[in-house]
Amino acid sequence: MNHLISSQNVEKKLIKKEILRHPLVCGGCHTLLMYNRGATSVQCSCCHTVNMALEANQVAHVNCGNCRMLLLYQYGARSVKCAIRNFVTSVGGSESAAEQKCNS
Which parts of the chain are coiled coil (predicted)? Predict the structure, then answer.
């Protein structure tokens, strides 16, 4: 019987496990969280905030209209609030407010 586990097999399993994990910054306390691929939400172990976990193809980005911080948001959202400045940036949906005004 072979009771020894080779270090190569252990290393391969660890690498495979890490590939299936994704990073997420908690919206409540800004702690870096790791979650398993396919999860829809992640609860922070520090502040207990429940954060939405989105796949890469469900996320868009925009710069904050106040501080220019890069903000991520779910496709379809009309606005996104900056966690640093509490500034709400409109992301418009199908047309921006300026385009709608010009078309009126």
Answer: none
Q: How many residues does the chain have?
A: 104
CB proximity list for 15: less than 8 A, separation 6 or greater:
none
> Could you tell me the pTM of the whole model?
0.43
Q: Which two tokens stand for residue 87?
A: 């500034």
Nearest partner of 59 among 73, 42, 71, judged by Cα: 73
Angle (nearest 5°) at CA 6 between 5 and 12: 105
Question: Radius of gyration over alpha carbons of the chain, in Å?
Answer: 20
**Tell me: the pLDDT tens digits for 25-77?**
888 898 888 888 888 889 999 999 999 887 766 778 899 999 999 998 887 88
- Helix or strand run (H / E) with residue 34: strand 32-36
Rounded to whole angstroms, the Cα distance separating 19 from 46 reads 24
